Amino acid sequence: MDFLLESLRASLAMILAMDPEVVGAVWTSLYTSGVATVLAAVVGIPVGTLLGLGRFRGRRVALTLLNTLMALPTVVVGLVLYGFFSRQGPLGTLGMLFTPMAMIIGQMALSTPIVANYTVAAVAGADPRIMNTALTLGASPLRAAWQLLLEVRFGVMAAVVAGFGRVIAEVGVAMMLGGNIRGYTRTMTTAIALETSKGEFAFGLALGLVLMTVALIVNLFLNLLQQR
């Protein structure tokens, strides 16, 4: 018990003192996860809207695939993209492996299905009269779809928040594609795994507290949106 209390005191001291190692890992996590979530929203929201509104052949297959991708293990995503970005891979000449950009792409691959699926649920659950009314008033299909998204904006925002929550706490993609390079690609989760294995429990605990705080804020925001 004394060990845990002492580690907690040390971890709080690191946080309050803005330890550079802690700040660097937190910044890398927030930056890569934030950019990946924005890119996932750019792709996932239109895809989710199309699947939510469309009634086309193969829609059920597409929804099944989307649901499957939501449960895709992070290590599988990391493994596949590692093969693409490695020197022997088709994109090896770009030199993206062990860079923040590779991490962002991997996190985007994890986040996009979640954003798309939540958007499907929001759009499919909307009042169908919204689209019909907009079309009747002379709006184009694209404009009518935009109006529908405005009506279900809280559901769409929840989709984006859920996507961010998925990637901020993941470790597989960040470790395999980022390489856990100190001061460059080391995130909160990879730093926790490394430092704890080295016996630096207080440092790992400090990052764990920050990560839990971020996760708590994200979930509180998500719950607020769902209540609306």
Give the topology.
Layout: H1 2-16, H2 20-53, H3 59-70, H4 74-85, H5 100-124, H6 129-136, H7 141-151, H8 153-168, H9 172-178, H10 188-197, H11 201-227
Q: Would you give an account of this structure?
A:
This protein has 228 residues and is mainly alpha-helical. It has a single domain, classed as Orthogonal Bundle (MetI-like fold). Helix content is 78%, strand content 0%. The chain has eleven helices and no strands. The protein has helices spanning 2-16, 20-53, 59-70, 74-85, 100-124, 129-136, 141-151, 153-168, 172-178, 188-197, 201-227. The longest helix has 34 residues, at 20-53. It is globular and about 65 Å long. The model has no long low-confidence stretch (mean pLDDT 88).
Strand content: under 5%
The coarse overall form would be: globular
The assigned structural class equals mainly alpha
Architecture in CATH?
Orthogonal Bundle
Largest sheet: none
CATH superfamily: MetI-like
Question: What labels would you give this structure?
Answer:
single chain; mainly alpha; MetI-like fold
Outline of this structure?
By secondary structure, the protein is an all-alpha fold. The chain has helices spanning 2-16, 20-53, 59-70, 74-85, 100-124, 129-136, 141-151, 153-168, 172-178, 188-197, 201-227.
